[in-house]
């Protein structure tokens, strides 16, 4: 009996270890890990400057905050979140379960927000999720490592659209491009955006098995979406799933236009893409913290204590202060022009159809 009890203890220990990522607070740590790093960095900054004067502390905080801010970058920012298909996140088919994709997306999108929008987050802003659209291309096997490649691809006056691509890197000996869909009669058929593809043997390649082996004909929205949501990776990585998330920016209950949030965080079009009726900002030198964009002085006047701004002024600006700026003087619209505006419109034409399609589905009885 004693040996049986010992075996049971070992089995329990192994079971707990296999499901450790499902323990309380583990999800929160995975989500807020980028923010925890920022908090830790700020804490050490305070410790280093604890004996310095108030003015010196403000200068140190200003340098620290500027270093976090992606000054000069375009809004089409990308980041990578890495994870693996653990036992507790896999289904009975030994694949990453459908619900686990959503868990990974929470962490991936928040990582992007921390990198792209530090001033907005410091001011107390949030980025709520309105919806996510999935296209399952092929399964992620249990214990397999994968990446979530996150990119902000488009926005309008209210919504932003974030495209995430779940990929895995093949082993060195098997770096070959794989077609995400079955071929029939030598031709490649396009998968429907709202259905996972089926291989030639009739077995579903998605995380959830399909009951039908009949190929789903592509719709007009599928054809349009395929222009942006390509199912091949430039570096040869294997694509497993594509998602499109629709989100917005909130300061309390107030919705903040994306262009305002982007510009305050230093995002802008490249120098050669910005122009004005009375001033030309074209330059061969990319914008950066050392060579800030022309609107950075406007941001400093709102958000920087050293330039007459404050967190309270920044919060007030996000809550509606931007509306008080005359239309001809709205600097955030100007710095989002040029090539950035052209790409935004092109991508929005594709991605906004997803939102309209789902909104139309609500009208179906």
Automatic annotation (TrEMBL):
CDD domains listed in its UniProt record: 4HBT
InterPro entries in the cross-refs: HotDog_dom_sf, THEM6_lcsJ_thioesterase
Entry's family note: Belongs to the lcsJ thioesterase family.
Protein name per the record: Thioesterase/thiol ester dehydrase-isomerase
Organism field: Lentinula guzmanii
């Amino acid at each position: 009996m004693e040996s049986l009890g010992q075996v049971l203890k070992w089995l329990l220990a192994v079971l707990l270890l296999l499901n450790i990522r499902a323990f309380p607070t583990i999800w929160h740590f995975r989500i807020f890990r980028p923010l925890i790093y920022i908090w830790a960095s700020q804490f050490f900054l305070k410790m280093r400057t604890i004996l310095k004067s108030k003015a010196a502390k403000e200068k140190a905080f200003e340098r620290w905050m500027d270093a976090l801010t992606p000054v000069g970058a375009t809004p089409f920012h990308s980041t990578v979140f890495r994870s693996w298909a653990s036992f507790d996140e896999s289904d009975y088919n030994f694949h990453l379960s459908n619900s686990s994709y959503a868990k990974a997306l929470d962490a991936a999108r928040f990582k992007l927000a921390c990198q792209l929008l530090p001033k907005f987050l410091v001011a107390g802003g949030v980025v709520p999720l309105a919806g996510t659209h999935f296209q399952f291309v092929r399964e992620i096997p249990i214990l397999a490592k994968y990446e979530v490649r996150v990119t902000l691809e488009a926005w309008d006056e209210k919504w932003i659209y974030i495209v995430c691509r779940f990929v895995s890197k093949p082993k060195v000996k098997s770096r070959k491009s794989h077609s995400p869909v079955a071929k029939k009669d030598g031709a490649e058929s396009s998968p429907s955006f709202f259905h996972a593809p089926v291989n030639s043997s009739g077995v579903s390649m998605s995380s959830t098995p399909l009951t039908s082996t009949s190929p789903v004909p592509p719709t007009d929205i599928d054809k349009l979406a395929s222009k942006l949501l390509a199912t091949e990776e430039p570096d040869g990585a294997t694509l497993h799933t594509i998602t499109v998330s629709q989100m917005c920016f909130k300061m309390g209950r107030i919705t903040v236009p994306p262009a305002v949030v982007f510009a305050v965080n230093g995002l802008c079009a490249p120098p050669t893409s910005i122009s004005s009726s009375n001033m030309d900002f074209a330059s061969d030198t990319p914008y950066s913290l050392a060579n800030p964009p022309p609107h950075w002085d406007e941001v400093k006047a709102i958000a920087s204590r050293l330039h007459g701004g404050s967190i309270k002024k920044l919060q007030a600006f996000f809550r509606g202060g931007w509306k008080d700026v005359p239309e001809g003087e709205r600097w955030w619209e100007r710095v989002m022009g040029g090539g950035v505006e052209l790409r935004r419109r092109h991508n929005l034409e594709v991605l906004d159809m997803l939102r309209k399609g789902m909104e139309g589905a609500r009208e179906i009885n």
